[in-house]
Design goal:
Elements: E1 5-10, E2 19-24, E3 27-32, E4 41-43, E5 48-50, E6 53-58, H1 76-87, H2 92-108, E7 111-119, H3 127-138, E8 144-150, H4 161-170, E9 175-178, H5 183-192, E10 195-200, H6 211-221, E11 227-231, H7 240-253, E12 255-259, H8 261-267, H9 283-287, E13 293-295, H10 312-322, H11 328-336, H12 340-345, E14 361-364, H13 369-375, E15 379-384, E16 387-391
Parallel strand pairs: 1-4, 6-7, 7-8, 8-9, 9-10, 10-11, 11-12, 12-13
Antiparallel strand pairs: 1-2, 2-3, 5-14, 14-15, 15-16
Bound molecules: zinc ion.
Length: 400
């Protein structure tokens, strides 16, 4: 078979020795210690090669709006109010342009799969949904984008929101979101056979939790493996005993967890002036109980999170630092939470460096996943279905 490309001596995150990887017609056709073939080649010298980072939770539609929001306090209430105001002047072209800017940043950071929430409500209508659906199509060559139709401002309390949500599902939404939790979301998910991704908790008060009801419903509806929850900041405020109980329950019923460190660190504990709590759910501890956990970007350059380079390796490093993780095996778990685990959370088909899979391959300037997190290793180049989708020049020192 004529090969299009050979990657020489790359290291996979879960395997020991380096291998050659052969690509033809957009797929991985062979992986072996040595492949004898005459084809264009790239020498990786033992660098990590992954199927790309997977961002399981981002908001492309409301990214890059800092310049039109005037926030003084940095609280959640202020962020919600100022984004709700800004949203009234969104146009489809404006949403497309901002989402495109953010998506391109993610692509050059080595992200090859992504789930974006898109807000749907009577103010913005389906403008965001239509803009991001177009973007999904226009950037298929670089990234697989799942669109989660998301009624941010509620459903039962917002007349017209449910009708719009159903329209988005009819028009190709991949996932349905909710905030806060309501039964209606499960009903619509069943009707359209969609996975569900809830936003849960915007506080660190563990005296009550929507999570219990989400677990109960997931179990009752037989939707295990198809439900994810984002934030769950209340889990940052409970003892290990209760966390273990909840972890076992999540694993049993098949509810996955996405932790969003940048946003939660920015917004939680605003009522405190000293010893501000971190408010970041301990995903690495939930992993021990078999929960599918991911670390993701969430907001980029808006009042919820006035930061963002869309780098998931930076997010993993931030999480490890905040969660006081230093052992190599725990750092490796952080790496898994931006690669294989979010792919599982998203039920992403054919993810991974394996024969027969699409040649989605990203090369990192590192030889070890734990060190990649510790050092915030940079991606050097990436392929999507065998075609090069981005290149980042490695830094050069100019000695005297
Ligand atoms: Zn979110």
């Amino acid at each position: 078979m004529a090969l299009d490309l050979l990657l020489r001596q790359g290291r996979r995150a879960d395997e020991e020795g380096p291998v050659d990887i052969a690509v033809a017609s957009g797929r991985i056709v062979e992986i072996a210690e040595r492949i004898a073939a005459d084809a264009p080649e790239e020498r990786l010298d033992g660098r990590l090669v992954i199927a790309g980072f997977v961002d399981s939770h981002i908001h492309l539609d409301k990214s890059c709006i800092l310049d039109r929001c005037h926030c003084e306090q940095g609280t959640l209430e202020e962020a919600i109010a100022s984004v709700a105001t800004a949203k009234r002047s969104f146009t489809e072209a404006d949403i497309y342009a901002r989402a495109q800017r953010t998506l391109e940043k993610a692509i050059v950071q080595g992200t090859t799969r992504m789930r974006t929430h898109v807000e749907i409500d009577p103010r913005v209508g389906l403008k965001g949904f239509h803009a991001v659906r177009r973007l999904k199509h226009d950037y298929e060559w670089a990234i697989d984008l799942q669109i989660c139709a998301f009624p941010q401002e509620g459903l039962t309390n917002d007349p017209g929101a449910e009708e719009l949500l159903v329209q988005a599902c009819e028009q190709g939404a991949d996932v349905i979101g909710g905030c806060p939790y309501t039964d209606t979301i499960f009903e619509i998910a069943r009707r359209f056979d969609l996975d569900i991704d809830f936003h849960l908790d915007f506080d660190t008060d563990p005296s009550w939790m929507h999570l219990d009801e989400v677990c109960r419903q997931t179990d009752a509806q037989g939707w295990g493996g198809r439900v994810a929850v984002g934030h769950v900041t209340k889990l940052s405020a409970i003892d290990h005993c209760r966390l273990a109980e909840i972890g076992r329950r999540l694993a049993d019923v098949g509810v996955a967890v996405t932790v969003l460190p940048a946003t939660d660190l920015f917004l939680m504990g605003r009522d405190r002036h000293l010893h501000v709590p971190r408010g970041v759910a301990p995903a690495h501890r939930l992993l021990h109980h078999g929960v599918t956990c991911s670390l993701a970007t969430n907001n980029v350059l808006n009042p919820f999170t006035p930061f963002g380079d869309c780098s998931l390796i930076r997010m993993a490093n931030l999480y490890a630092n905040v969660a006081q993780i230093g052992r190599a095996r725990d750092l490796k778990a952080c790496f898994d939470m931006i690669t294989t685990l979010p792919a599982r959370l998203m039920n992403a088909a054919h993810y991974g460096v394996a024969v027969g899979h699409p040649a989605d391959l990203v090369v990192l300037d590192s030889r070890d996943p734990a060190l990649a997190v510790a050092e915030v290793a940079q991606p050097l180049f990436g392929l999507k279905r065998g075609r090069r989708s981005f290149t980042r020049a490695a830094a050069t020192i100019h000695r005297p």
